[in-house]
Amino acid sequence: MEATEANVWKKCTICKKPINFGSRYYVCSVSTCNGDRTGYVFCSVSCFDAHLPGARHRDAGAIEKMAPKSAEAPSRILVKPTPSATTTSKPMAPQAPQEVLIIASRLKEFIQARSEFNTSASVMDVLSDHIRIVCDRAIDNARADGRKTVLDRDFDFLKKG
Asked: Does residue 24 sit in helix, strand or coil?
């Protein structure tokens, strides 16, 4: 069977040769190599053998498998949110914990060192509320970029300039 783009399931991790739907392929018996994140697949035992020196496995074997017969629905779909979803700063999870997010002892030490002032316990609740608002906005920024990870750049709105 000819390897056209329509009938290629995946490419070999080592030689990049196409592995067609319904054809035989090999995976490493070590779970870190055949997990969802790595997903190493090999078109032949010789390609599997070429993988071993770099992998440094103590004991590994090639497991023969069959590729799916046809294309399946993708297991992961990224969806860009609508603009109206990113303009509101509402928390995604109403059941989010409302605990104090500030380490009270560290904040009190900081204020004491900078000003020799004492800090009221009620300050922790107020600052935690502010942090929740800032985090909600950063979450909206990450969502607008199509990510599920909040990065430092999502807090750039705090910078003055």
From this structure: strand
pLDDT digits (tens, 9 = 90+) for 41-56: 999 999 998 988 888 7
| Residue 71 in tokens | 């294309």
Q: What is the sign of the dihedral through the CA atoms of 111, 112, 115 and 117?
A: positive
CA gap 20, 70 in Å, rounded: 9
The Cα-based distances of 13 to 9, 45, 46, 63 in angstroms read 13, 12, 12, 15
pLDDT tens column, 104-139: 899 999 999 999 999 998 898 899 889 989 999 999
- Please give the Cα distance from 150 to 142 (Å, whole number): 6
pTM above 0.85, yes or no: no
Rounded distance, CA 110 to CA 121, Å? 14
Query: How open is the CA angle 118-131-160, to the nearest 5 degrees?
Result: 95
